[in-house]
């Protein structure tokens, strides 16, 4: 089945794994903006635990606004904050030097629209991860009632930015602060890249498991 999600900024590892398994990843661009998702947020791992980074939007009724019209706000220097936070979190990771300079250059760009930021971020992550995923954008909104006649795996708004779903599936991989916090699911693909580098695709191809599976099944 083909994967269908909302537009996400530096999507979670497990969404990438589903995209790789599906081969085709459809991005819903015919929707209205919805709060509480990864549309303008991404979760990374810091020394003191998970950190949720957010891109501020121009004030207004974004929830009633088509996603393609949502504007990024530059009233505050969120780009510098993100760059500094990533450097602090992953400066000692095995593959920090391999990816950080390009990610910093990307974050320094001033995108007008959130959708454009997300699309370029997704393409950059696909390039880094080396995953053969075809990315498409919807041309019409797909209503849930119509999904029974389609070959789409609908994961729109399944992944919540502020709380990992208890029934979420995840990929187990070595994390930088795992000895201190244990394995933390639901992190951005950035975490997997900084921690595993070229081996990223190997982990993305592993079987997706559930949080309550036995430790032996996650290795």
Summary keywords:
219 residues, alpha/beta, 4-stranded parallel sheet, 7 helices, 32% helix, globular, disordered C terminus
Describe the structure.
- It is a single chain.
- The chain contains seven helices and six strands.
- The radius of gyration is 17 Å and the shape is globular.
- The chain has helices spanning 13-22, 78-90, 96-108, 114-129, 178-181, 189-196, 200-204, and strands spanning 2-6, 24-28, 41-46, 49-54, 134-137, 152-154.
- The model is unreliable at 210-219 (pLDDT under 50).
- The longest helix is centred in the middle third of the chain and has 16 residues, at 114-129.
- It is α/β, with parallel strands linked by helices.
- α2 packs antiparallel against α3.
- Strands 5-2-1-6 form a four-stranded parallel sheet, covered by helices on one side. It has a two-stranded antiparallel ribbon with strand order 3-4.
Instruction: Report the principal-axis shape.
Output: globular
Strand fraction equals 5-15%
Rounded Rg: 17 Å
pLDDT averaged residue by residue: 88
Overall strand count:
6
Characterize the biggest β-sheet: 4 strands, parallel
Summarize the structure.
Helix content is 32%, strand content 13%. By secondary structure, the chain is of the alpha/beta class. Helix 1 links the parallel strand 1 and strand 2.
Task: Give the helices and strands, then pairings.
Blueprint (H helix, E strand, L loop, with lengths): L1 E5 L6 H10 L1 E5 L12 E6 L2 E6 L23 H13 L5 H13 L5 H16 L4 E4 L14 E3 L23 H4 L7 H8 L3 H5 L15
Parallel strand pairs: 1-2, 1-6, 2-5
Antiparallel strand pairs: 3-4
